[in-house]
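Model it.
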Amino acid sequence: MGQYSITAGTFGKALAVTPIAIANLDARSAWEFENQSGTLGNNYTGSQLYVGGAGNVDVILDGVVGAQDTVAGLNLLPIFRGANPSYTGFVAGTGYVTGVNLLTTVVTTVPNSPATVPTGLTVDINVTLPTATLSAAGTGYSAGAVNSVDGGTGTGIEGTVAVNAGNEVISFTFTDGGTGYTVGDVITLEQAASGDNATITLITAPNGAVTADITIGNNPGTDYSVGDIITVVQTGSGGDCKFAIASVESLLPGVNDVVRFAGVTVGTILPAAVSYVINSGSAAGLVALK
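Modeled.
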């Protein structure tokens, strides 16, 4: 059971290797003598690799990791209590519309070097649109978008109208709730070269507030810390929807981290320490050595 220097060409332990799919990496050691979890993983923890059958060998080299401190959870409570003292958490903001994979900015709670500044998080948001009653049907409208609106205390309402056979408006569908409006505002719907006297009266006026069901988009980012304050970026919004990071996680290596040793001959010991052996290679008879 003695373990000797690799540079001397002598190994104290050997373990038959079963290559795995990149999606099945398990960070726990594959070596029973160093695994304290009770379940063996497939991490060969810096082993040398003997090749018993010629071919390509695909590996993750020792020390290679995936994206670090990616965002795993969002804190969407009004008060963030993940730090001491607690501080303001989720803020709904104004002027937003429902969107996916929106960029964000961050104010971090942890000092970072230039190499580990948090970046990249995208989010999906939902926004509650206003509701309204049709106050006047107007005349001369055609089905489709209104060109502009007039009246009320705010700006930015957009939407489409449905009309009847007499070109009167029968309903209005919001696509943007605008900002600064008040319940009871009367809004005139205008269409160029046609109708301009149909009106709606606002029953609710959420003014582009984001609902508290924000989710992580297609990029969880890197180098974030619990408690970092995130602002959702969207053109035309008030730029004031904020929330905090609730949890982060570091990822295992991915397909872009795989290194191929091509055309390895029988009896070769790879000149590098490896953590994982990936099943996209063709060599057989692989043995981990320590």
